[in-house]
Every structure is written in structure tokens, then in C-alpha cells.
Design brief:
Length: 75
């Protein structure tokens, strides 16, 4: 490649970058400088509340226990 070819590629790339910059500025506009109000959240505590016995039943089925379902025939 000649020096003039390399210079032309650099010139076209620079014009493309500058055009893309101004094109995105025209479409998106400038960054917003407005203030935003954010709600405060309560900090997480390390204490646990007592569980509801109607939800956590002591006689419930344990999903961690492996169960095998097999086919049984009636006689």
C-alpha cells in the first residue's frame, strides 16, 4: 500500500468517528443533570422472627428425602 492509501484510510476513519459522535449526540442528546430522589431502605438485621406454625408444619413431607415411585399391580 502506498502512503497516500494509508492516509486516505485514516482520514475516512476519522471522519466516520466524528460523524458517529455528532450523530449520536443529535439522536440521544446530552446527559441529564437533574437530581433524583432515592428512597431509603431499612438495614437488614441479623435477628430471626419466630416462624408461623401453620406454614412450617413439623409433620410435613420433607422434600430433601429421596422418594422412588414404582409401578404396582393390583391383585
Amino acid at each position: 500500500m502506498k502512503k497516500s492509501d494509508i492516509a486516505m484510510i485514516i482520514l475516512i476513519a476519522a471522519i466516520g468517528v466524528i460523524g458517529a459522535f455528532f450523530g449520536t449526540q443529535a439522536i440521544l442528546g446530552e446527559a441529564a443533570t437533574e437530581e433524583v430522589k432515592v428512597d431509603r431502605i431499612e438495614p437488614i438485621s441479623a435477628t430471626l422472627d419466630e416462624v408461623d406454625p401453620t406454614i412450617f408444619n413439623a409433620e410435613a413431607i420433607n422434600p430433601a428425602v429421596e422418594v422412588q415411585v414404582t409401578e404396582q399391580t393390583q391383585q
